[in-house]
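U., I forgot to send this yesterday:
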Amino acid sequence: MTPATDFAAWSRAVQVDMETALAALLPPATVAPERLHAAMRYAVLGGGKRVRPMLVFAAGEAVEAPPTRLTAAACAVELIHVYSLTHDDLPCMDDDDLRRGKPTCHREYDEATALLVGDALQSLAFEALSQPGLHPNAGTQLEMVHLLACAAGSRGMAGGQAVDLASTGRSLDLAELEFMHIHKTGALILAAVLLGALCGEHLDTSLRERLEHYAKAIGLAFQVMDDVLDAEGHTATLGKTAGKDAAQGKATYLTLMSPREARAYAGELIDTALAAVAPLGERGRRLAEIARFVVERSF
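Result:
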């Protein structure tokens, strides 16, 4: 990872390094099947906040993990994330036309290609994470693969999306809403943090518990702010269609509270996250900075 002092410079460095790593990992568009590979590159490259890779690197810094391991883990998490976005945008899901400031994959190509892009990106994620010798402890590497698989599956991200689809058009209470988001958004955020920490030589129980507490809090805060920005933001700034949740009758935090109350709730969650990593001191600096970014971002 490129050395940088302030958070803005560090996050830009992560974005640049991730773009390079992902571009190298993705099959070239000149290799058959060319259209699928071109669409994969279209979906992954040239956009995105790369928050999940940032979390991998930030947690990795806390345990002084080698950059090569962190890069592979960060690529794996981001590929799972982009696969989920590609599928979520399909007409059978959220039916969106814009993602990361450009036409969604199925609009630029077609629905069948977008479906295959998601499938292929998921496989590529596990290819990156299961590469021989990534971690000197084979048991730890197997745990990393298992962790990401669980986070992406029916008891994680995919399950959360299923709950989201089933909940469209009806009211949810706070517990039901948070159950959905703990799975849909929070599971992959938790995986990103733990994968970064597992890239080190040893993750003790106490630190793991702190990181889990941190990740669960910022996972919910991230979704709270997503709901606020969807309602208050502009399409050009967000890079995706603003106001889509309300138009589709989706259950959000703003169906339960005002924007002001939602921001305050996000702030409380971030305070919880910051308290969890405070004992890490300088080793937890990037984790703390990401937590603050979650509530201060405008996109």
